[in-house]
Amino acid sequence: MNKPTIPPGNNGLRDRAEQCLAQQPVAGHCHDQGASCKLIHEMDVYALELEMQNQELKNAQADSQSALRRYTELYDFAPVGYLMLEKSGRVVEINLTGAALLGVERGSIMGRSMAAYLTDRRAFRHYLQQAFLSSGNLIAELGVKRADGGVIDIQLESRVSPDDDGLPAVIHTIMTDISRRKSLERQLQRQRHEMDALIKQQVAIQTAAAIAHDLNQPLAAISAYGEVALRSLNKDEVSAKTLQRALNGLVEQAQRAGLCLHELLGFLQRGELEIEPIDLNNLIQDVVTIVRHDKLNHFRPEVMFEAGLPPVWANPLQVKKVLLNLLYNSLDAIRDAGLDSAGISIKVFTKAASNMAQVTVEDSGPGLDREAVKRVFEPFFTTKRNGSGLGLAISRSLVEANGGQLWMDALAETGAIFHFTLPFAPIGR
After folding, report:
1. What angle do CA 205, 211, 212 make, to 5 degrees?
2. Same domain (yes/no): 150, 196
3. Radius of gyration for the chain, computed over Cα atoms and rounded to the nearest angstrom
4. Backbone angles phi, psi at 65, to 5 degrees
5. Are residues 283 and 416 in the same domain?
6. Would you call 246 exposed, middle or buried from its count of C-beta atoms within 10 A (0-12, 13-18, 19+)?
7. CA-CA distance, 87 to 173, in Å (whole number)?
8. CA distance 133 to 138
9. Were both Cys, which of 199, 264, 385, 420 would link to 211 (CB 3.0–4.6 Å)?
10. 401 and 281 share a domain?
11. Where would I find the H helices in 121-239?
């Protein structure tokens, strides 16, 4: 009779089985220390090994099922959609979040083309082609037509997975709902358009006001010359020389007023002013004179000019408006800070650089902090108690409309320094 053989087990498992068996109470005592008793012992050990292996298998299965549940939850209920696509765009796999973003049941999308759910199929097909040619992640923003009729914005981020031969097989794609972000972007864009329209409107208003201001001067002069002529005529002896001088002045100012009206009508019709060659040094001197008369004796600027500067190509009224705004801002800032107005020093000078004339307005006031410097050209941002916050925004628009740039020197140690440029007039103009 052949003796039964016990299959050899794992040494670690057998050792544990031996230890476990040794701790169990013995039902009977084997007096025979021969082969039969050893065989019974081996069978007991083997049975215990099988029991322990079975328990370990059950534990492993339980761990595997738990891991599978966790993975399924992680996959299906991730905060982003996840899907696998073939090169044709057919959906191979999609999680529950992805199906929810599309507004359909997961089962109904499997095997269908992803393009069927998008607003721009051509853009999606181009995206797929680029994704399969790319070695990295590729991002696109598209619109989704949901089953309920709504449209949402999504972002796709995809990466190709190769097959066993190293060839592109499927594309792994993350799908994110970016509807809120896109809505905010569109809202911001609308606000920017509205702001641009407001700035243009204010530019038009300020320009028209500047023309009207220039018109007031010849009208006032016409009135004054007319009064001189009348007084001369009312005298017993009429001074022909005085009368002629008054009438000549009246005609000259009437012609000047006509030019202002012509410019105003042209601006109202076309919405823009004519560009012409300007002697920038003379224009700056005129503006400084206006400010000095307006601020009486409190304004004593230091003016520096570059001799022989070529004429610039711009509209004089708009350039005047910019200079007046910069100068008044400097004066207001210095006085609001409680500094001695008699000590105001504003430098205005020009220099030829890169085929542009540059004007720098520098004051000795309190200056601006870093945050204010960053926002100084934002519409409605102001450091004044009663400021509108539109002056510098309008000034920048006016300078840019004339082909130049306006900026603030952020590195100024004291005071505020503003620069703007204007192009030189074409040769022969």
Report:
1. 85
2. no
3. 44
4. -65, -40
5. yes
6. buried
7. 12
8. 10
9. 264
10. yes
11. 121-133, 179-234
Of the candidates 36, 35, 43, the one whose C-alpha atom is nearest the C-alpha of residue 7 is 43
CB 103 within 8 A of CB 150: yes
Residue 112 counted as domain residue: yes
CA distance 300 to 280: 20
Tokens 């006001």 belong to which residue?
209
Q: How far is CA 381 from CA 84, 118, 153, 371, in A?
A: 49, 42, 33, 11
Verify that 417 and 335 share a domain, yes or no: yes
- Which residue, chain included where needed, has tokens 């069978």? 43
In this structure, are 281 and 263 located in the same domain?
no
Q: How many CB atoms lie within 10 A of CB 129?
A: 11
- Asked if 84 and 92 count as a contact pair (C-beta separation under 8 A), the reply is yes
How far is it, in rounded angstroms, from Cα 411 to Cα 417? 9
- Whether the model clears a pTM of 0.85, i.e. scores above it, the answer is no
Range with the largest mean pLDDT of 69-73, 325-329, 382-386: 325-329
Per-residue model confidence as pLDDT tens digits over 169-219: 789 999 999 999 999 999 988 888 887 777 777 767 766 666 666 677 678
Residue 331 inside a domain? The answer is yes
Q: Can you tell me whether residue 74 is helix, strand or coil?
A: helix
- Name the token pair of 213: 């201001």
DSSP class per residue in 301-348? -EE---TTPPPEEE-HHHHHHHHHHHHHHHHHHHHHTT--GGG---EE
Range of 314's domain?
276-423
